[in-house]
Specification:
Blueprint: H1 8-26, E1 32-33, E2 38-40, E3 45-48, E4 52-54, E5 59-61, E6 68-72, E7 74-75, E8 78-79, E9 81-84, E10 89-90, E11 95-98, E12 101-104, E13 109-110, E14 115-117, E15 137-139, E16 144-145, E17 150-151, E18 156-157, E19 162-163, E20 168-169, E21 177-180, E22 185-189, H2 206-220, H3 226-234
Parallel strand pairs: 1-4, 2-5, 3-6, 4-9, 5-10, 6-11, 9-12, 10-13, 11-14, 12-15, 13-16, 14-17, 15-18, 16-19, 17-20, 19-21
Antiparallel strand pairs: 7-8, 21-22
Length: 240
Amino acid sequence: MRRDRRPYFIRRIQDAYVRFYTQRFLVPAFDEVGAGLSVTSPRDLEIFGGNIRVGCHAHIHAARGNMTRLCTWTTDGREGRISIGDYVLISPGTHIVASESISIGSNTMFASGCYISDSDWHDTYDRTRELEKHAPIVIGDNAWLGVRVIVGKGVTIGENSIIGAGSVVTKDIPANCIAAGNPARVVRALDPAMPLRKRAELFREPERMARDMDNLMRYILRENTIGGWLRSVFSPTRND
């Protein structure tokens, strides 16, 4: 598909269904969820287990064939916990799985395919039990994890830090730096003289932002017709 052929009113109907599905089937799965939760492809978001909390204006993206998962497990009577702050962005294919505790600060961003787990899930010698192979993960405010980053048990990532694509984080990463590699190591510090703009700034006027996005969508789809959309669905051409 080269462009969105849906008429504006079809897009509005589909968006309304996504909001209904999110409120009816996903919101009750959280122990706590803030206002403004936005989910794309909600059927491809799995929320499993208790003690999962998310703040306001979280954007959680999934995609067909690329599920996003937030899961906690109960092991030896201990139930895992996931706490996600405000204004967090989670991209398709990201898996966050807790045996003990995973805490994610506000304004943090996860690119596609990240894997965050606070446990090895099996002991080195006793492959039938987890034993002590678990430790809490803390990801600070305004961190940014690139595509397919892996974060292992017991790791703390400091605020504002960036983890390069494909990195494997096995040790703590300090605040205000860029780290990359396997295992991830600090490659340089952020410039303290440069101001940092956080995702929270996008939501200072959420109602105005929603109106602006709706007007933009109306403009982009203004020439689409129901006939052209149906033709693109059932008999697409190279121009679709």
